[in-house]
Design a protein that fits this description.
Blueprint lengths: L3 H27 L4 H17 L3 H29 L11
Length: 94
């Protein structure tokens, strides 16, 4: 049996689950202006994933990279969810 696909799938599920609150807290404390950090991290993870040898590590870095890039879109959508009142607005921010 080959458990590699199951392991990578579980890692993807875990990474996406961890990034959900990161996006929410990032927008709350820093606004959508934090998007370049996600862009830089995504690009770096993808480049790093191209350079490593192990399949699991390369796959994990690829998932991290694309999750960071997807988080940029989620930051902008999170701002809209805050405007709709679905999530709290940071009162300390203008």
């Amino acid at each position: 049996m080959n458990w590699l696909g199951v392991a990578v799938g579980a890692l993807a599920f875990l990474i996406i689950g961890v990034f959900h609150p990161i996006v929410i807290k990032g927008e709350y404390y820093f606004s959508k202006k934090i998007w370049p950090v996600f862009l830089a991290a995504g690009i770096l993870f993808l480049i790093w994933g191209l350079k490593v040898q192990g399949q699991v590590l390369s796959s994990t870095l690829g998932i991290l990279g694309f999750t960071c890039l997807w988080s940029i879109l989620e930051l902008f959508e999170q701002e809209e969810r805050v405007k709709k009142g679905w999530f709290p607005k940071n009162p300390k921010r203008k």
